[in-house]
Amino acid sequence: MSATRALRASNGLLRASSSLTKPATPAVLESRRRFAASARAMSSSFYANWEPEGPSVKTEIPGPKAKAAIAGLDKVFDTRSLNMLTDYSKSAGNYIVDADGNVLLDVYAQIASIPVGYNNPSLRKVAQTDEMINGIINRPALGNFPPVDWASVLETGILKVAPKGLNQVFTAMAGSDANETAYKAAFMWRRQQDRGGPDVDFTPEELSSSMNNQAPGASQSLSILSFKTGFHGRLFGSLSTTRSKPIHKLDIPAFDWPQATFPQLKYPLNAHAAENAAAEAAALSEVEHLITSYHIPPCAVVVEPIQSEGGDNHASASFFRGLREITRRHGVLLIVDEVQTGVGATGRFWAHDHWDLPHPPDMVTFSKKAQTAGYYFGDPALRPNKPYRQFNTWMGDPARAILFRGIIEEVEKFDLVNKTARVGDYLFGKLEKLAEKYPGQFENLRGKGMGTFIAFDSPRRDEFLAQAKKVGVNIGGSGQSAVRLRPMLVFEEAHADLLVEALEKIVKSW
Amino acid sequence: MSATRALRASNGLLRASSSLTKPATPAVLESRRRFAASARAMSSSFYANWEPEGPSVKTEIPGPKAKAAIAGLDKVFDTRSLNMLTDYSKSAGNYIVDADGNVLLDVYAQIASIPVGYNNPSLRKVAQTDEMINGIINRPALGNFPPVDWASVLETGILKVAPKGLNQVFTAMAGSDANETAYKAAFMWRRQQDRGGPDVDFTPEELSSSMNNQAPGASQSLSILSFKTGFHGRLFGSLSTTRSKPIHKLDIPAFDWPQATFPQLKYPLNAHAAENAAAEAAALSEVEHLITSYHIPPCAVVVEPIQSEGGDNHASASFFRGLREITRRHGVLLIVDEVQTGVGATGRFWAHDHWDLPHPPDMVTFSKKAQTAGYYFGDPALRPNKPYRQFNTWMGDPARAILFRGIIEEVEKFDLVNKTARVGDYLFGKLEKLAEKYPGQFENLRGKGMGTFIAFDSPRRDEFLAQAKKVGVNIGGSGQSAVRLRPMLVFEEAHADLLVEALEKIVKSW
Asked: Does the B141-198+219-390+397-411 domain belong in CATH 3.30.450.20?
């Protein structure tokens, strides 16, 4: 893998610190603009010492050490979905290291949830602060006993990056409960409206029937509309809106909630413009039909900006503007699930920033790269009319909220969202050439202009992912045939070169 | 509060370290037996320097600083359920400190979730280890990329305290998802059995109907049986089994699942033995009736050892043995929800240890004082027949699992479970006397022999809780009229003296 040693000399983040010691040529000025903060905060060898020089695959994966350890682990923990037994203490930046010392370029990143690299030095500092230690050992019941600095932690962290138009948050633990608490807010909001406003009390019948899980107290007359091939989590409410694969849903009771078709775009987009527009129009009209005619009418529509687990299905900004228009017109809430798309990977902080919406979504859910979770909202009416209606013991985790603040600082300091937009364009260009060179091997290449949130279909997908490990890259799949790229926000042009080189090796051998 | 200065000289934990420097009288030998490990590990002033000397209430609660801060927080975070704005950096041991510097003896402990005291010095050390920092900044997708030492973290932590007969764990984030994933395991287990075993494949009809949330793929023909006044969480599946209060359930869709009456015992127990036995027999017979005749038959029964949110409702060990017998006889799983009762507060590590069951529960869920969550199980058939059926991105949090290991070490080092049994007996004795002295003020005193997991009913409960703050104690309520005591495991006889003194002050003023 000597080719990969070029990484050190590559452009971007890794070069930045050394460029700061050179005379002020225009290129260096530009570099200084991007990395001004780093000059003050970091030693020149900071990032250079952080990452391995490149991938290095020494054994089969799993190798002998991993195999032995997995056999032991399996006695107490289900290992059938195990992908790699990972040595996190050795992993660094974009590189994941396994139990046998194999070093892989990681463009899966813990199912898209590592934001700024393994063992990020800035996050290490955050983890050592008194504030973090306090958050770890004194975990509060946030709804009852919030810490004195909770407003500040929110305002300098989670809320600093709140989507445009939204200024409040309900914190949660992970994507599933972020979505479910958003759904609960939607049900309470709508029922409160139907009841005649927040001051109208529950009827005795509502109070008593709710305890029996029956209408009218337990609302059985409202639903959440989701999209086919969408994924929103795997607890009972979120799973009722998840439509990715039967294996996610089989044998689990579900609510009788409606699903609309997500437009199935054809690629390349410019060759199928009319057809795709028609597919999106049909999908929107199906949504409107379900809103007005489904036997359990939806009080909210939940949608991912890019359906991720379902196979990286995209739709145009105009489709989402249409969805916003229809939901507003019918008094239905729009919940945008940014659990996988949020926090920069699409080249905007939130993927829905690409849509140029005239009115913001009603709620935006987040988790994964945020390392914490919750839903943003703006309309005060989305706070239920009484306390304790939306409540649980922990309501999130301040330690993880503090970490997200550190992530946001790192993202700002290194301008990582704009960088991801730039590196994504670079990577997409190279993949387009690869797709031309190997027809049929990189089909439906998608995610142009969406940062590094890129995918393609492989006719031999599972084999493709297995082969990738052998050439030093950890990649994930989604849907039936998609190879999904989910690099971290510290993924550089040099890493993109390595990645494309590796992808070519895979198909070249076939 | 000068009386509280006696605390330093009190028996138990605080005295332990100094007693180690005295000549070996029999009392000291006993003390050495209990605290042998501490002698090696800790300096003599370790615990003595840890806690404030006693409560100290200087302002109204909330005081001026808290009021100003709460107004700011409310703009971005719902504060209507706020109890005290807390300064965790100043809180220590059994004492919680608020924004205005008021110091309260805390027997609510973040809704029963602080195990070994605020700012516990041993946990502080754990939080500073490389292992913890690694867990914070490199959060894995545990099902796909578990850390190389995950088996060891489990075996020396979560699984070291596994309930008797259970040796595996599925890790989760909090109580609600711990219960919901246990329910999912129950549904998959039962459907797999009905299908003819783990090797029988899903039918095409099951595969396609599951995607539409319809039977037979999405099981609409099985339920989870729970008990009236029980609490198991507030997400959609767990909320369907929660029967505590309408405010928890109103407007949220729920599954049509059955509920049985939880025996309503009368106190004092010895004066109502026959009546209580009859109530328990009736409850068991209702369970059996629902198992055999409910139109959506249960595949599992979920029960709390002591119904906590629902008002501290107890039942006898014989009731639970009966429940185990009935569920086994009908091939229905028994899930014991130890989210609030687990980790020592009842004087046994798990509350169901009090029952002397001939067969263990099928699953035991845990969270709160464990600071992590999940469900234990033993039967390999409870692992679903295929991977990815029970899965999510994070599947828990290794950082919190490492913390639980530290908590377990602290509990063992100071023999905190046995100590809690002892202090609980001491406290209960004093409360019995108080109840005699103030008839009608401490009704239905319950939790005898259950460590510090003690409650009573107050005719002016909400006022009682508000008054408690004025005399320096933070206490929680539950159900309609219960005052529930939920001290930490570091609660000593001296704290019990303080508490009882404060409780008497409240009722004396009426």
From this structure: no
Q: Which pLDDT value is given to residue A47?
A: 54
The burial class, CB within 10 Å (0-12 / 13-18 / 19+), for B87 is buried
Give mean pLDDT, residues B156-180. 97
- CATH 3.40.640.10 in chain B is located at 141-198+219-390+397-411
- CATH class held by domain A130-411: alpha beta
State pLDDT tens for residues B193-249: 999 999 999 999 999 999 999 999 998 899 999 999 999 999 999 999 999 999 999
**Taking CB atoms and an 8 Å limit, are A141 and B177 in contact across chains?**
no
Considering the segment(s) A53-121+416-508 as one domain, its CATH architecture is Alpha-Beta Complex (3.90)
What part of B 311-340 touches A (C-beta under 8 Å)?
none
- pLDDT tens by residue, B369-419: 999 999 999 999 999 999 999 999 999 999 999 999 999 999 999 999 999
| CA gap B244, B233 in Å, rounded | 10
Predicted local distance difference test score (pLDDT) of residue B235: 98
Residue type, B176: S
Confidence band (pLDDT; 50, 70, 90) for A219?
Answer: confident
Give the residue with greater pLDDT, B25 vs A111: A111
A319's enclosing H/E stretch is: helix A317-329
Give the Cβ contact number of residue B331 at 10 Å: 10
Considering only CA atoms, which of B212, B225, B221 is closest in space to residue B194?
A: B221
Residues of B in contact with A138 (CB under 8 A): 88, 91, 114, 118-119
The predicted structure's pLDDT at residue B484:
97
Indicate which of A235, A299, A405, A475 best probes the interface with B, i.e. most B CBs within 10 Å of its own CB: A235
State yes or no: pLDDT of B15 exceeds 80: no
Does residue A12 register a pLDDT over 90? no
Q: What pLDDT score does B50 carry?
A: 83
Share of chain A above pLDDT 90, in %: 89
B386 lies within 8 A of chain A by CB: yes
Instruction: Please list every residue in chain B whose beta carbon sits closer than 8 Å to the beta carbon of residue A207.
Output: 246, 250
By Cβ distance, the residue of B77, B118, B177 closest to A235 is B177
Verify whether the Cβ–Cβ distance B144 to A82 is below 8 Å.
yes
Residue ranges matching CATH 3.40.640.10 in chain A: 130-411
Computed on alpha carbons and rounded to an integer, the radius of gyration of chain B in Å comes to 24
How far apart are the C-alpha atoms of B145 and B99, rounded to whole Å?
Answer: 42
Q: Which helix (H) or strand (E) holds A176?
A: helix A175-195
* DSSP string over A24-80: --HHHHHHHHHHHHHHHHS-TTTTTTTS-SS-B--S-SS-HHHHHHHHHHHTTS--T
d(Cα B448, Cα B454) in Å, to the nearest integer? 7
E strand or H helix at B273:
helix B273-293
A130 touches chain B (CB under 8 A): yes
Q: pLDDT by residue (tens digit) across A360-394?
A: 999 999 999 999 999 999 999 999 999 999 999 99
CA–CA separation, B487 vs B109, rounded Å? 6
Query: Chain A residues with CB inside 8 Å of B177's CB?
Result: 173-174, 176-177, 235
pLDDT of residue B400: 97
Q: Where in chain A is the domain with CATH 3.90.1150.10?
A: 53-121+416-508
Interface predicted TM-score of the whole assembly (ipTM), two decimals: 0.92
User: Which of A73, A106, A148 has the most B C-beta neighbours within 10 Å, making it the best mutation to test the interface with B?
Assistant: A148
Sign of dihedral through CA atoms A282, A288, A289, A290? Answer: positive
Q: Does B240 touch chain A (CB under 8 A)?
A: yes
Task: Report, as residue numbers or ranges, the catalytic residues of B.
Answer: 231, 337, 368, 393
Strands in A113-211 per DSSP E = 168-172
Which residues does chain A have within 8 Å of residue B394's beta carbon, measured at their own beta carbons? 113, 174
